[in-house]
Amino acid sequence: MRLILSLGSNLGDRRANLLAAHDALAAHPGMRLVARAPIYETEPVGVPDRYRAIRYYNTIVVIESVLDPDACSVAVHAIEAHLGRRRGARRNVPRLIDIDLIVCGEARRDTAALRLPHPEAVHRRFVLQPLADVCPGLVLPGQSRAVRELLAELPPIPAVVLAGEQWE
Question: Residue 165: how many CA atoms within 13 Å on its side-chain side?
């Protein structure tokens, strides 16, 4: 099954955090890295005012997996915890690492633990821009238009620009 994951970090060494998440996903026995997008620096979305100045690094990785969606979610949460992510009741706060499952094949879920495809992905430039770099013609489950078309319809704000630091 093809997985699309969004990686984000806005604390510490953001590039190193993304690289650690990338490496942990690639090393997982049930996952094989297929593609990775460039790293973008992005404005935060939906955060309290006191966090507005803390910019993110975001990217997309594409993985082939033998795991079912629920097992993928468990694996992703374990990787986040291993990398220092502390989940709590507060949402949209700064974090070392954030890994979101955007798509798990054609799977659909709408539970408290997992929503697939990610319901906000088509509205987020920080997801669609890097996704368009690696899968521009992809039509996400439940959509009728390709990623590049969805991206073209989004406003240019919040800003999403190539980061000065990349994978190498």
Answer: 11
Whether the link from the prior residue into 130 is cis, omega within 30° of 0, is no
Count structural domains, the chain: 1
Name the token pair of 59. 């990217």
Bond into 117 cis (ω within 30)? yes
Is 113 part of a structural domain of the chain? yes
Please report, for residues 4, 119, 156, the alpha-carbon distance to residue 103 in angstroms, rounded to integers and kept in the order given.
Answer: 5, 10, 24
Can you give the pLDDT at residue 112? 84
Banded model confidence at residue 150, pLDDT cuts 50, 70, 90? very high
pTM of the entire predicted model: 0.93
Residue 27 is assigned to a structural domain of this protein: yes
For residue 56, what is the domain's CATH number?
A: 3.30.70.560
| Spatial distance between the Cα atoms of 60 and 72, rounded to a whole number of angstroms | 16
Give domain status of residue 120, yes or no: yes
The candidate with the shortest Cα–Cα distance to 46, out of 126, 100, 103, is 126
Q: How far apart are CA 94 and CA 65, in angstroms?
A: 29
Tell me how far CA of residue 130 lies from CA of 27, 72, 85, in angstroms.
22, 21, 23
φ/ψ of 36, rounded to 5, equals -140, 140
Task: Note down the domain range covering 40.
Answer: 2-162
Asked whether residue 117 is domain-assigned, the answer is: yes
